[in-house]
Amino acid sequence: MQKYLPFRDYFAPRTQEEALQLVREQGPAGRVLAGGTDLLIAMREKGLHAECLINIKRIADLGGIGSLPDGGLRIGATTTLYEVETSAAVRRASSVLSEAAGTIGSVQIRNLGTIGGNVANASPAADTTPALLVLDAEMEILSASGTRIVAAERFFTGPGKTVMEQGEILAAIRIPPSAPGTRTAYIKFGPRQAMDIAVVGVAVALKLDGDGSCRDARVALGAVAPTPMRARRAEVALIGAIDERSVEKAAEEACGEAKPISDVRASGSYRRHLVGILLKRAVKLALAREHAAA
Ligand SMILES: Cc1cc2nc3c(=O)[nH]c(=O)nc-3n(C[C@H](O)[C@H](O)[C@H](O)COP(=O)(O)OP(=O)(O)OC[C@H]3O[C@@H](n4cnc5c(N)ncnc54)[C@H](O)[C@@H]3O)c2cc1C
After folding, report:
1. Residue 126 CB–ligand 1 contact under 6 Å
2. pLDDT at 2
3. Domains of the chain listed by start with CATH number
4. 77 lines ligand 1 (CB under 6 A)
5. 190 lines ligand 1 (CB under 6 A)
6. 117 lines ligand 1 (CB under 6 A)
7. pLDDT per residue over 157-173, tens digit each?
8. Phi/psi zone of residue 160: left (φ > 0), alpha (ψ -120 to 50 degrees), beta?
9. What average pLDDT score do residues 120-125 get?
10. Closest ligand 1 atom to the C-alpha of 103?
């Protein structure tokens, strides 16, 4: 049986100012709509109620990929996952993010879904978020009183929850330039090869010195805690000479740091086991990468 979406009003503002006014006026009854690949399904299948949809996809200032004065990247919130996956600028500056975006859903989903939606939806299993954590990304949040910047690591507060308040919109994601010699990888595990959300996702960024030793390491885990998380003990274990022992130690530490739950998709103990396996694979993959682009 056809289920109709029970919303009262729909707006498609053309400017940020109009959108901010609408989110302010509508209050909790209004929901920002980007690609709709999470929101409309939640309304149709999961009983989420929104009286008014505010489609932000026609606001030019919220889309597109540009550079920042420090050489970093600014990715507008309504940039589609497909654009993030295929953009030469993103691949050059932060290939782990393109890699993560490329694992999401199908081409059709990536053409509709946006990076801002993936982030603002705050699913613990979202694929772009571990990549954003290892890149030290920042969230640009817009409200009537101006713009505030929040580090990706502090942005997520729980499943479906972020630091964003009523009246705020995620405008863009800022990615600082990576140090030369940084190599990265993102690996996710799901029972199927495509169209499956992560049972576990692991992103790594390793900054290597000329002699191949690791000066700085970042490890982030998805789907094993209420929010995406850095595995800091695993990072410490990777500093210095990277060999079988140090990678094994890092995998052990990451397994200990993860706080997975059991659900219909996997048990907590299986998820913990996967963290170690995927961490080892991600480190190996990053080290094998010829080019030192992040
Ligand atoms: C078949 C299928 C497969 C999928 N596979 C994956 C997968 O493998 N990995 C994965 O991570 N996800 C997956 N998803 C989930 C989804 O596609 C992504 O999370 C997508 O990035 C959501 O973006 P959107 O633009 O569609 O967001 P929307 O659905 O429009 O919005 C999602 C939420 O974020 C809010 N929001 C959106 N943009 C903003 C903004 N700029 N400011 C403030 N709030 C905002 C909305 O109000 C809503 O609460 C899948 C979905 C489907 C339907």
Report:
1. yes
2. 54
3. 9-55 (3.30.43.10), 65-175 (3.30.465.10), 182-288 (3.30.390.50)
4. yes
5. no
6. yes
7. 999 999 999 999 999 99
8. left
9. 98
10. 8
* pLDDT tens digits for range 229-265: 999 999 999 999 999 999 999 999 999 999 999 998 9
User: For 32-79, how does the pLDDT look when each residue is reduced to its tens digit (9 = 90+)?
Assistant: 999 999 999 999 988 898 999 999 999 999 999 999 999 999 999 999
CA of 274 to the centre of ligand 1 (A): 25
Long-range Cβ pairs for the range 260-267 (8 Å, 24+): 260/200, 260/223, 260/224, 260/225, 265/191, 265/197, 265/199, 266/199, 266/200
The Å distance, Cα 109 to ligand 1 centre, comes to 9
Nearest Cα to 274, choosing from 191, 156, 159?
191
User: Tokens for 84?
Assistant: 């993030």
Distances in Å between the alpha carbon of 229 and those of 181, 203, 259?
24, 10, 10
